[in-house]
Amino acid sequence: MTPVEITLDVNGVARTCVVEPRLTLADCLRHELGLTGTHLGCENGVCGACTVLVDGASVRSCLMLAVQAQSARVQTVEGVAGASGRLHPLQEAFRRNHGLQCGYCTPGMLMTALELLAENPTPTEADVRVAISGNLCRCTGYQGIVASILDAAAELHEHMGTRPWDP
Amino acid sequence: MGSVIVDDPVVRRTGATSVGSSILRIEDGPLVVGKGHFLDDIAVPDVLHVAVVRSTVAHATIASIDTSAARSVDGVHAILTLDDLRPVLATPRMPLAASPTGGPNKHTPFVLARDEVAYVGEPVVLVVARSPYIAEDAAAHVAIDYQPLDVVSDPRDGLLPGAPMVRRELTNNVFDDQIVGYGDVTAAFAAAKHIVADELFQHRGLGSPIEGRGVVAQPNVTDGSLRVWSSTQMPNELFNMLVETLGLEDSLVRVTCPDLGGGFGTKYLVYPEELAIPAAALLLGRSLKWVEDRRESFVSAVQERDQFWTLEMAVDADARILGIRGRLVHDQGAYVPRAVTIPYNAARTLLGPYLVPAYELRVVVALSNKVPVATIRGAGYPQGCFAMERMLDLVAVRLGIDRVELRSRNLIPASKMPYTKPLRERSGATIVYDSGDYPATQAEALETADWQHFRARQAEALAAGRYIGIGIANIVKGSGRGPFESGTVRVSASGQVSVFTGAVAMGQGLATALAQIVSDELGVAPDQVRVIAGDTAGAPLGFGGFASRQMVTAGSSVHLAAKAVAAKARRVASHLLEVAEDQLEFRDGSVGVIGGSGSVSLGELARKLRGAPGFAFPAGVEPGLSATINWLTESLTYANAAHVAEVEVDVDLCQVTLRRYVAVHDSGKIVNPMIAKGQVIGGIVHGIGNALFERMGFDETGQPLTTSFAEYLLPTATDLPLFEVSFRESPSTLNPIGVKGIGENGTIPVAAAIASAVEDALSPLGVRLSCTPVTPEALFDAIAAAREAALRQAQDGTHQRL
Amino acid sequence: MKPPPFEYHAPASLDEACALLATLENAKLLAGGQSLMAMLNLRFLYPDHLIDINRIPSLCEITVHPDRLAIGAMVRQRALEVDPNVARTAPIFGETLPLIGHRQTRNRGTIGGSLCQLDPAGELPLLALLHDATVRTVAAGERRRTIPIAQFIGGFMSPTIEPDELVVGVDFPRWPDGHGYAFREHARRHGDFALASAACLLSLGDDGRIMKVAIGVGGIGSVPVRLSGAEAILAGSPGDPVTVEQASRQCADLEALSDVHGHAAYRRSVATALVRRAIAAALDRAAR
Hints:
The complex is a heterotrimer. By secondary structure, chain A is an alpha+beta fold. Chain A folds into two domains: about 5-80, Ubiquitin-like (UB roll) (Roll), CATH 3.10.20.30; about 90-160, [2Fe-2S]-binding domain (DNA polymerase, domain 1), CATH 1.10.150.120. Helix content of chain A is about 35%, strand content about 15%. Chain A contains five helices and five strands. Chain A has helices at about 25-30, 90-95, 105-120, 125-130, 145-160; strands at about 5-10, 15-20, 50-55, 55-60, 75. In chain A, strands 2-1-5-3-4 form a five-stranded mixed beta sheet, with helices on both faces. In chain A, α2 crosses α5 (about 145-160). Chain A starts with a strand and ends in a 7-residue tail after the last helix. By secondary structure, chain B is of the alpha+beta class. In chain B, the strands form seven sheets. Chain B has a seven-stranded mixed beta sheet with strand order 3-5-1-12-9-10-11. Chain B has a six-stranded mixed beta sheet with strand order 7-15-14-13-8-29. In chain B, a hairpin with a 5-residue loop joins β19 and β20. In chain B, α9 (about 340-350) packs parallel to α10 (about 380-400), α10 (about 380-400) packs parallel to α18 and α14 runs parallel beside α15 (about 550-575). By secondary structure, chain C is an alpha+beta fold. In chain C, strands 4-5-10-6-7 form a five-stranded antiparallel beta sheet. Chain C has a four-stranded antiparallel beta sheet with strand order 11-12-13-14, sandwiched between helices. The longest helix of chain C is centred in the C-terminal third of the chain and has 24 residues, at about 265-285. At the B-C interface, α4 and α19 of B face α12 of C.
């Protein structure tokens, strides 16, 4: 297998690495780029723990090859808070509403929620449940997660209107 | 369902720190920014990666293992069998876990299989390579010549005369066969006005934490020490086994739990991999990492699986229970890695919060050629509850009595508390339900769920062609299993307050709760308290997380340790400030004069107690501002709960939708209501999985059929209603902080409540449900059978009329 | 669960892709990857070569013609879900797409990939069959083919195409404006593979009777099927409940598979109910 050099934008920073073609995007992020916040729960495309945003769209990074992310804009959980460390309203909301217990599914939930709120700033409870239906959580029973996302939506909507969150 | 979540009101965010308030969790900061430190996040230098070659057949002898092709894969470092590991292993067989006697026996698993495999997934060979990808490549080239042997898949088949043995070393597939009971059941049944009987099939699946298992073993070739990280719920037991099996001195071994991505009982074991990989690390002199993948977890992590019950219940003319008797066959799997508890828990806890004068259950623990069975969240209690509640509903239907009325007549009344059960523990110890009001808990659940108006709504729905139903279940849960959990509280010269405990954090907010307890004693904010859980360097003694015990045991130990530290601090401060001890209070990390300005920080006190050569040491106290307390307990403290489930059944699709779910829980004093509620809800969803979705399938050759999350179904966000959870507080009388366990309680009544509700919904069709999970297929068959029976009855009736 | 080793190719044009497909042994096309990558991770497949066609620009178009909707093979399921032209001309897509997997899988999954995977429970193959769609392929040497969907669906997960053929698009014949449509599916959980699915298109004549009708069932057998018997029963009828019921009963004779999620009798029963509901919903929409 011929290794390939790839360059991708990860959380706003250009990153370059040399990878085997079969290296998944998830493993590339975790082990080549040291961003271990993205987690693996099944490597089968079902649990959603590995969810990241690629060019703004939520994807299962265990089902993408790192080489496919050449020139792509990838956003992981490490890029959600502001550069100064200021938490995104979603992250604050997860804390306030007990939206996490073990924290393993949380990065995937956050990335999925980011996509949802970018498209639908005023989701209903049903909208939120459908949006996270592809993310498995074994700890929370989802109730705290749903409350967190609705809380964050309300806060973003109230304070930001249609402007995106500015870290 | 509405678009607004109705939630509990109290969330104190201002930093007020006391037990009983819902402070935000100290764990969350790193986790929400992806800075958790889970097993696979651990990076040790020069690590090699391990893949495990596992049996692909359920029962066979191993004629040969050919590793030559695997060895030649570029990047492979070593291929290891049991024979290769023997030089560093004291025994080829796992010691019995969590046992006072310890040691391997003829039922414990092998560290690696050698001559025989007894279940699909049994570990046989370790492949060590430069990367996990290469390790998997090489694993595919390991050629194992299996000579098939007869398989016992259904454990009942293994009980028949002439059945093949699950393992060649056995003469009997029965691991244990004994009676649990008390009183005179024969007399009870002779005196009965009514007897109902049923057969129940209960299946529970896996714990399925989203993070699987994993081990990192780092040997130090210079000093012979060994550092092991494992995603485990029993780090001290792993330590014990490593020391025992690898022949290492205590002081050379350290076991550390990383952040755990869930446990749920799946990680409450010492697995063969957890000994094999450290052994391999010692042998090779290299750091090794193994991260379980999801398919491995389905075939080799413990699960609960099948129970076959036959039961009879005898009642008098007033529908009061006179006695219960029956038989339970429990599928144990191929080995017994830990003392068997599930079927005995089920047998004992069937009695629940009800009065049962006589009881006899024969419990047969049967082996099978499947992965071993061990406790998953609930640990046998759900099966006991389901059995009892199904029989109660059967009595209600047969006698035409309201299900609630029946239960009310049989619940242990508040006037009888504390209630000594007629049943004793295996050890002979008495079982006492220490506090709780079972009828009041049930009443509160019924009230919240608006049970009394349901019949009218149900009739309305039926008229519109819709089938809705409601169900109830009541439980007790013994919690706080001893003998102790370790607790150390230490203040350093910097003023840092640290807690060390053998308790294990697996998402349940352990650190926050313990920090709250310490905060109340030492006057520091909880987020200033560092809790180090599950590291044998800080907690050389302990038992870990299981059986809903840690708040009781670790909470009590830490509470007492914090109190002891406070007492010491107060004493020294009194001397330094020249003020009587009762004039002092703890505030903002210092001990200060009440109503005055004089104070000394905890850090200064710690420095004083650290001493300095040549300087006088404070009189009458031991060095160090710390205390270790291992609070001892022999009894369990009993929590209780009542659940009401409302469902709708689409009879064409055989689909059950949960419309509403009410849970009233009494777990004594609640340290953090937000966390406690999260535990209940999370537990309920495990129960919903058991009730409707989770089925670990095997075929008749012992091949697992459900080996991915696409086949083994966990509940998702769209399958669930909002859970209405409320708490009653009957403080425990058995520990210094009045708490009771809660981690598993949400799970226990769920399958029973849902089965009751589905049956209620389908009562016009006369369906009886006696199995879990209630899958669409099971409902389809049940409805078809009920329709057929009704048709036959109608035809018989017609025939008679003619 | 890591993929086995392979050589990776990312052609920038259709010609390049066809040339690779023609010359490489044991090669697999990588489209959305939602099926292929899962199979690679599980090591169900050991391709020597992966040809990634995600960089070919010409395969992502959706074109509305007077008589048909031409959808490029690499159009993402999510794009189909939100495309206003598709919503306008073939509203059944809007009802179907949200049921396919989850948002994350639809962001990457493609219609071409879905058709070539031919999962028995696949919603898009069922829609294609319902519409009597045609599949367009190319191969090296300018070979082009149009394959009627009934021919394309060869058998259980087996599309009838040559090893060196590449699917470039699917044409869906258009139904008249105001036609009735419905897609009904039953799965264990939201987004799961369908245990059974029913799709219906119909248009009414001026007399209010069913002039044209197509009914398809998926998820229960090895391939999606058209219920031609049901279509014959409904054609020319006013769509009264008795006739609808009779049409739905045609499911009783369908081939049905048993697996961990449900046995054959259950699946047929579900299909019957879904067909009944789909026809009723389509009639309701057509009438409006």
